[in-house]
Automatic annotation (TrEMBL):
Protein name per its UniProtKB record: Uncharacterized protein
Annotated PANTHER family: F-BOX DOMAIN-CONTAINING PROTEIN, OS08G0203800 PROTEIN-RELATED
């Protein structure tokens, strides 16, 4: 049975520099978002994925204000190159065929572990460790792409 005490909600506004989708819904302007924390029980961080990178915008511990610019967590080239470039090679073939780039989907965040579950649509699921800023695990249907560090 779940017992919930008095609920408290805080509302905050993100700065104007926060990456947002454009109104024309062009695929290269696509962003994916996930709320995480810098450490267990820590300050909120909004993770943003686009066609080039995953970045994070952190709230200051003391002022509770959002930092003015997001910091890069990992470049998509690093994500794709984790297994000697095997994933990058598969995705590059599809990119040439369909003339599009992939935006990683940010699916889930484990507060205690600091791991973010990422999906590269049609290819695999990856685990990104926010502390080390590295891919630590990959789950792919293609056995050549299986990887664990």
């Amino acid at each position: 049975m779940l017992h919930v005490g008095a609920a408290r909600v805080k509302v905050t506004s993100l700065p104007a520099s926060f990456p947002r989708d454009s109104k024309n819904n062009h695929p290269y302007n696509d962003h994916r978002y996930l709320l995480a924390t810098a450490s267990a029980g820590g300050n909120p961080v909004v993770l943003v994925a686009d066609i080039d990178k995953i970045s994070g915008l952190e709230q200051s511990k003391h002022t509770k204000m959002w930092k003015s610019r997001p910091q890069v967590v990992i470049e998509n080239e690093m994500i794709l190159g984790f297994n000697d470039g095997g994933l990058a090679e598969l995705i590059e073939k599809e990119r040439r065929w369909l003339n599009r780039k992939h935006v990683p989907e940010l699916l889930w965040f484990g507060e205690r572990s600091g791991v973010v579950l990422i999906r590269i649509h049609g290819f695999c699921f990856l685990c990104l460790d926010l502390h080390s800023k590295k891919i630590v695990r990959c789950f792919c249907s293609d056995r050549r792409m299986q990887y664990a560090k």
